[in-house]
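Contributing: when you submit paired examples, paste them exactly as shown. First protein:
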Amino acid sequence: MTTKVLNVLFLCTHNSARSILAEAILNHMGRGRFKAYSAGSSPRDNQQPNPLGLQVLQQSGISTEGLHSKSWDEFGKPDAPHMDLVITVCDNAAGEVCPYWPGQPATAHWGYPDPSAGDGSDDQKLEAFRKTLHALKRRLDILISLPTEKLEKTLIQSTARELSKE
């Protein structure tokens, strides 16, 4: 008996920091049960993942291969993978009107401060990225440890929302 792989889309405004971290972490930890993606509501022209975020991922032994910034519009196309769960990881994206997601996935909001924001030194920003990585990892550890029956579509919505209170 095979278990369905659950597709999870992490959203942020620019798709350069928090959503990229979440995508990489879940793909690393997902044990073949999850396939993570990320996107932004309004990535800048030529947007790239934040180099400090990529550095923190690499230092944690998490692959950065294939990570790139993209618009959430890519996931509303007919040939896009259907999502089971869509999670906003920044307050700006949470407040925006999202596009129609094929398959009507469950949704949740897990707000995190932007580790790249502010005028701190690179060392301070690097530490902010580490803290964000660890906070995301704690929440994702709980998600991936849930039994398969808890991840069924009827329950994934409330489970994801409960995790937002962690």
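Second protein:
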Amino acid sequence: MNGRAFKLGTFAKPDGKPFAAIVLDETAIHLAQAHEAYRGPGRPALRTAASSPGLNIQDLLGDWDENFSVLQEIVAFLDKEGLKPGASNVADLHARPPIAHPGKMFYAAQNFQEHVDEMLRAGMTPATGPKFTGEKSTSDPYLFLKAPSCLAGANDDIEIPRGLKKIDWEAEIACAISKRGKRIKAERALDHVAGWMTTNDVSARDLQIRADRPGLRSDWLNGKSHDRFAPMGPYLVPRAFVPDHMKLFIRLSVNGAVKQNGNTSQFIFTPEEQIEYASGILSLETGDIFVCGTCGGVGQGTNTFLNVGDVMETEVEGLGKMRNKFVAEA
């Protein structure tokens, strides 16, 4: 890939409005201001539905291939001219979810063998009937939907809902859909992906299995979609700058103690296969997100859960680290 690698993010200054940024090293450069500085005769502009002052990452996804090329030119221009319009150190900013208002958020259940095994041991699979043991040839991806409204920033506090005792972690990699499509073949799935993000599928195990309706098993809404149960970011890393999304470490620690240490090479179903499966059911739209499965080491496996004051750090190789503190519900 020609050109300097960059990341994209959505940030806010203290008491300020969110803005999209190009991130170079640890510096966030205001995207709209950089775009205005770059504009000139013969230079292609970013293609969005909004005017330049309102640029956001979601605006860029609809014409992602063209916009990515322009973003590369903007970065080259800034480097040549020595410009950093609206620049701030990332550490001085409040990181928001890179994509503020995604469409559908697909999550892969039990997509690492270690996680399949630990959930079997923990009794999260029925004691009777066939058990999924990770054998790919006899099954399809298992996906569920999580509410986009439960997104949180990479460093936001997360409230533990009142009365719940079994709040769990699931470190994961996510991808953002750029090009809409239906019945997308796995071998072409990455043509529909803009980039990759770090995320966490925070879960309420108290509620994930309904004691009052045991025959229905998992209650995905109650177990997964509480407010701020989907921290994401701080960056969207363009697909072109992730050489192999199937060789990235996924790590999570709680209060400094490592709990999860896996690798995307351990996926049972690849992100491409998940995209093929989901798009065979319903059309994928610009701004949809796939969260591709967690590795072994979740709290349910050892009956260890998050408490008020705990700090959870989630990292995917090359995509950035999140640091979320758990607090009591206000």
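If you have annotations for the second protein, write them as plain sentences, like these:
The helical segments are 31-38, 57-61, 64-81, 113-121, 205-208, 220-224, 271-279.
The first strand starts at residue 7 and ends at 12.
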